[in-house]
Write a structure and sequence with these properties.
Chain lengths: ~110, ~110
């Protein structure tokens, strides 16, 4: 499975935008890029996903590089509730199980 | 509202006991998964199931077995619990098919083996 690389941690100020980077240089054509986050003492929750085009939803935006070797999760205005570990994951579109392989993620700290 | 429910939030078991962790989903998902999460090691896949009575080993299946007799229920079994199985266990489910499908997680079960 293709791997992802993320910074271990990042800090942000409340109400400022946050850009969380992810490198996936060995991504294949059938891999979807997924982002999940895990709040303290909870299971991971879905944030956003994409294949080639940039994506927006109510939680965040996903910017995918033209060569697909990297992507950036954008939180437009960080709140204290956004403090979590953010995981960037590749899911193979051809595998029946569609399981997620988690890396270490980025711990986002939000300062008031 | 989608829901993955894990039967126990916190358990304490003795070494050698047989432990059952139950998971139920109400979304008619074909796929179900069991992960464990440990500090510094992230989430690791133990087993997954893509249909009733079907199962596949994940990355760390040793010491575990699973059961999927009904579509909505996926059980993780520790035949003889050991202290190195103290961990948080996460159940998840998703529709089968294109990997754009969202995976939904339960809240986790904290197991301590003493």
């Amino acid at each position: 499975d293709a791997k992802t690389t993320q910074p271990n941690s990042m800090e942000s100020n409340e109400e400022e935008p946050v850009h969380l980077p992810c490198n996936h240089s060995t991504i294949s054509g059938t891999d979807y890029i997924h982002w999940y986050r895990q709040l303290p003492s909870q299971g991971p929750e879905y944030v956003i996903h994409g294949l080639t085009s940039n994506v927006n939803n109510r939680m965040a935006s996903l910017a995918i590089a033209e060569d697909r070797k990297s992507s950036t999760l954008i939180l437009h205005r960080a709140t204290l509730r956004d403090a979590a570990v953010y995981y960037c994951i590749l899911r193979d579109g051809l595998r029946a199980g569609n399981m997620l392989t988690f890396g270490g993620g980025t711990r986002l700290m939000v300062k008031p | 509202d989608v829901k993955v429910t894990q039967s126990s939030r916190y358990l304490v078991k003795r070494t050698g006991e047989k432990v059952f962790l139950e998971c139920v989903q109400d979304m008619d998902h074909e796929n179900m998964f069991w992960y464990r999460q440990d500090p510094g090691l992230g989430l690791r896949l133990i087993y997954f199931s893509y249909d009733v009575k079907m199962k596949e080993k994940g990355d760390i299946p040793e010491g575990y077995s699973v059961s999927r007799e009904k579509k909505e229920r996926f059980s993780l079994i520790l035949e003889s619990a050991s202290t190195n199985q103290t961990s948080m266990y996460l159940c998840a489910s998703s529709f089968r098919g294109r990997s754009g499908n969202t995976i939904y997680f339960g809240e986790g079960s904290w197991l301590t083996v003493v």
